[in-house]
Amino acid sequence: MKTLVTAITLGFLSTQASADPFAGVRDIEIMAPHHGRSMQAAVWYPAQQGGTPEVYAENAVFYGTEILRDAAPAKGHHPVVLLSHGLGGNIRSLQWLSAGLAARGAVVIDVNHPNSTTGDMDVLAGMNHGTRAQDMSTALDWLQASEFAPMLSDQVMAAGFSFGGWTALSLGGVRGNLDGYATSCDAAQGRSSHCLDLERAGVDLHALDAAQWNADFSDARVTQVAAIDPGLHWGVTSKDVTGLNVPLLLIGLGEGPDRLYAADFSDTGSGFGALVPQAQVELIVPANHFAILPECKPAGEDILKEEKDDPVCTDPEGSDRAAIHAQIIDLLAGQLGL
């Protein structure tokens, strides 16, 4: 029987001609002065041969992704992607996207956002949403001063999912509207999962600092934005999007009962999509909000039911999570010209 590493190595060698360069990854830690502590982060990049073959983030519920740990970076200049995870997510929850974009030729950096990541949740502190944009700007500072700097082009995409989709929009110049968001939650009557989460955590949106919420968190280095099922856009007005002057890709997941109310930017949802008519809007169906997570193993759904966890492996009938992932990678890579 082959050892796991040998099997992975043979798999990499057998696909080298069709998947060159491969995705390399390095785990790093970045000091975040605005939090007064460091952040766990990872850099994903197009890699040459070498490094240690690994199935990244494999567990009992989710399949992992084949990568080359600590491999030498490929030569050339490559666009940068600042990738932000959703509320309660982490670097591993979007590993397929990080690796997929790196294999297509991008340098991706993502972080575990303090106060809104797995095992590090403070709902009230996390609602100071601008710190997430600061996290990504800090990560870009680190990347541009690192050993990866010579391989970076001036093209910088801010990308993210759910709460991370809002982070990407913030980096691109969209401002929050606290009064609008609080009013939308008042009117949601239980339909918004995010509003319900805030209510259960005892967070009163009306009591938050509007100046802090509505501030400008844009980063002038960002040249394009990709937001996948973004949150926090309810109540945003045309005035709040005037700072968005870069190409925007908006991706929605699911329709009808499969569409997550809190992330619905359509005319029958928040209407945010109509505020950015310059955006390329893509709706993926059949799908739901959780289709963004890694592919689930056959026992994944039952394990989550047994643990009374969120049904993140329960997909709409007829959907194909692998195909959804491939479509999202193609859309982001296309915007990057890869």
TrEMBL record:
InterPro entries: AB_hydrolase_fold, UCP031982_abhydr. Residues 1-19 form the signal peptide. It comes from the Bacteria. It comes from Tropicibacter oceani. Coiled coil: none annotated. Keywords: Signal. This is Dienelactone hydrolase.
